[in-house]
Amino acid sequence: xxxxxxxxxxxxxxxxxxxxxxxxxxxxxxxxxxxxxxxxxxxxxxxxxxxxxxxxxxxxxxxxxxxxxxxxxxxxxxxxxxxxxxxxxxxxxxxxxxxxxxxxxxxxxxxxxxxxxxxxxxxxxxxxxxxxxxxxxxxxxxxxxxxxxxxxxxxxxxxxxxxxxxxxxxxxxxxxxxxxxxxxxxxxxxxxxxxxxxxxxxxxxxxxxxxxxxxxxxxxxxxxxxxxxxxxxxxxxxxxxxxxxxxxxxxxxxxxxxxxxxxxxxxxxxxxxxxxxxxxxxxxxxxxxxxxxxxxxxxxxxxxxx
Amino acid sequence: xxxxxxxxxxxxxxxxxxxxxxxxxxxxxxxxxxxxxxxxxxxxxxxxxxxxxxxxxxxxxxxxxxxxxxxxxxxxxxxxxxxxxxxxxxxxxxxxxxxxxxxxxxxxxxxxxxxxxxxxxxxxxxxxxxxxxxxxxxxxxxxxxxxxxxxxxxxxxxxxxxxxxxxxxxxxxxxxxxxxxxxxxxxxxxxxxxxxxxxxxxxxxxxxxxxxxxxxxxxxxxxxxxxxxxxxxxxxxxxxxxxxxxxxxxxxxxxxxxxxxxxxxxxxxxxxxxxxxxxx
Amino acid sequence: xxxxxxxxxxxxxxxxxxxxxxxxxxxxxxxxxxxxxxxxxxxxxxxxxxxxxxxxxxxxxxxxxxxxxxxxxxxxxxxxxxxxxxxxxxxxxxxxxxxxxxxxxxxxxxxxxxxxxxxxxxxxxxxxxxxxxxxxxxxxxxxxxxxxxxxxxxxxxxxxxxxxxxxxxxxxxxxxxxxxxxxxxxxxxxxxxxxxxxxxxxxxxxxxxxxxxxxxxxxxxxxxxxxxxxxxxxxxxxxxxxxxxxxxxxxxxxxxxxxxxxxxxxxxxxxxxxxxxxxxxxxxxxxxxxxxxxxxxxxxxxxxxxxxxxxxxxxxxxxxxxxxxxxxxxxxxxxxxxxxxxxxxxxxxxxxxxxxxxxxxxxxxxxxxxxxxxxxxxxxxxxxxxxxxxxxxxxxxxxxxxxxxxxxxxxxxxxxxxxxxxxxxxxxxxxxxxxxxxxxxxxxxxxxxxxxxxxxxxxxxxxxxxxxxxxxxxxxxxxxxxxxxxxxxxxxxxxxxxxxxxxxxxxxxxxxxxxxxxxxxxxxxxxxxxxxxxxxxxxxxxxxxxxxxxxxxxx
Lengths: 306, 280, 555
Description:
The structure holds 3 protein chains of 3 kinds. By secondary structure, chain A is an all-alpha fold. Chain A has helices at residues 2-28, 43-52, 59-71, 86-121, 126-140, 143-157, 169-199, 202-209, 214-242, 246-251, 257-266, 270-298. Chain A has a domain at 86-265: MetI-like (MetI-like fold), CATH 1.10.3720.10. By secondary structure, chain B is mainly α. Chain B contains 11 helices and no strands. Chain C is of the alpha+beta class. In chain C, the strands form 5 sheets. In chain C, strands 11, 12, 13, 14, 15, 16 and 17 form a 7-stranded mixed β-sheet that branches. Chain C has a 4-stranded mixed β-sheet with strand order 1-10-9-8, with helices on both faces. Chains in contact: A-B, A-C, B-C. At the A-C interface, helix 2, helix 4, helix 6, helix 9 and helix 12 of A face helix 1, helix 7, helix 14 and strand 16 of C.
């Protein structure tokens, strides 16, 4: 196991290097200047800024500097937010996105799994149709519309919860719910499909013949196997959710990472975009490692370590 | 009867799926024909009568430039349906193949493919999309290409996870024991067993693809104006939803109902394609 | 098979664990807001929202409206705009030499927030820092009228003492200009870049000056209490401000709320006291909304060289461009597709530009300007003329590319214009290309467009707008190079008599309209709404979006 982990760590470092390299060159392939805003600035000023930030040096030299800094854990300074370090931006915004994302996952995952199991067990009955319809509806409405409607009804009309902004637990409810809804919908469907696959398999029939109760069958046999696709989803889902959602953060004025992700790319803030990408990369790789380890828990027959 | 014929018969006996299929066919037919029958072009403005309520002249009313929403819905439907279908099927097919190979081969191949997917998933989708749009030009096919390049990784991971568990099962071991080749094992024995989940995955990706198009349009990278799509229309409508709710609800309902129909067809397909569920 | 714990238990446990970490960090930042909560019950707080946060509060690096408005309340320059007029700030009075080249400012007794006096050295340091090549200011060019400033910025002059800014003593600042600039004092009042900064604080902060509340010092009506990035800035009354008795508010809170519909919802809910910029169309929901100038001019730019040679042949033709411009019924188009409150125009004469006795626009008329409602017949005739001159046939016209930014309002504008040209002139060869802002501007600089929808800041004087279209200006990407225009503008700006200067500038405007690469569209106006109970708030001030220095909040 230890050897396996060391091997994975090596591979992960390699993957991060590829990620850093690919994002560097892809971002720099985008045309345009990061210093231009809606009202253009004169070319001589732009040239001066490019020189100051070292963007006029040969691309490979810039790449070398970037990698060198990255190895020292320094992601450089934002080109958009004058003199704010990318490390600082992440340190400030990540806890916000993570708190919101984990709240959403914290209720969406159990609810989605329960809905999926119930729906599959009661297949063809009214409850099943109801849950499937709910799930479909949840997936048919994009989050910016769900968010806007939640904000309007619970914030403006009913005045139960704050319309937007961040700070108190009450501020978390609406955005977390908006984030979690689509998650519940997709988890319910995946879980239902997966349960239906498992129900028909031999070991379930065997268990039934052994005279186990239905609940025992669900919990001891079906659930474990049906969870495999969910677990596969969960790795990247967690990594992406804790790094924020652009739409939800935009709508609810939440100072999280999600907005930086989009704004840094569209405004060509290279350093911020690359820093966030590498940061997300570290998270995704870490969570995927957890997922692969989780496989061995769910299904001992899977051996990844050899 | 062959596997696929049996599946078709099973599907034909499912009234919900067939009803949904008929509904989708109707939507497609209207999208193809309705704009030609309309007295208005979809981009024909009438600046003197913007934001009109529905009337016999304009069944769904007009938008902020006085354009006929009925015509725009059907023209927009062409783009949304095309992007939704291709944007879900192309990446799923790609993902199934890669995930199947990765899961079956295991070991180093699996490791490399999975780490590459990790990398690919981390690069913001926007970067690919902006690059593609700028160098390929922007139209429905550029959007599908962009989606295909980014969206195959999710299905690949799912299929790979399923295959990891399936390949240790008796029927696979049996197939290998009687000398089936790796390709044959993957495509004949393993992948068909994952199709149920993949089909559900595809139906889940159709709305995602439709919304991805709307989201891209929102940041300027969708279909170029004056062409439109359901996502575009919903996006424009949500801005003034408190003043002209209809301009938002009409496209939103079209998206939701169409997506619902795709999902119900998907469920029917799942039942029909699953060799173990069939025949009950 | 020893590990039997289900994964179902593992995930929520992990979530709770991480949420606790996240919650702790989140709680830390919210505590600042929490502790001030009881105070704000009784305190007079004015709350407002911006859709983006200030890029920087370092005056030399601040470029956006949010930074401009926040700095307006945190800082005091030599002069200040109040109610649209320039009034003394730190400078009690000033003298201008007869040749209009030397300005001498006499400073009053004023203090920084830590009690140290504000001196002429602080201003000299700030202005030199602004144009220093080491600062990399994106707005350095606002100071290029100062003698040798541009050369110092470009590195041609390395001795800072050559730049025309000098502190004669602690209370006297002398500024020498390169050429007479009649609106120079307005420029000092309107640009954030001209606020003073203090050398010791800037140097101690290093690169961090103006990035958070700890690295900033104020000499204005308010101080920066806290700045939670992408969330909220809190400004509190500065007791050390020389005119502190005029400030009635205890605090101003500027929230960062990117979605403008969310801002409206927050206003409806009473979370903020004013909406500075109601999205076009939504103002009808607020019957008591106010209207003000948005400060920019919208117009079409034509690329005379064309995106390619074939397009250039068509767009390069003056009559073709005139046909496009005359085809537009600006009154209907602007009110439907731009905003119901924007003002259509066929001139470049912003209503806020001052004349000698009344605004420039009404004092100096341009004869023969095109009618606002357009002239379809004449436009068709001009198109036919253009086709004859270029030898092109109406059914085989080259494709033209109309570049606009990628947002919904610009998309709507482009769709309406292209359809107008189709309906009036029968043109079907114009394609819209929407691009994100950096790529759109790149397309502009590289001439990858035929038509471009441009909005430019109106600034404070006609010259500042007209200078963009000279053949040497870096922002003139239209490929229109006209020696007569260059010469007319240059000699107009050399006139020392204000009336003669403005009259000459009017001739420049007429020439630009008749021969230039532009078609004026509109002066934008925006709408705002303020909660009843807020008094003394001024939203007309050039420079910041709002002036709450004299505002009061009733309870």
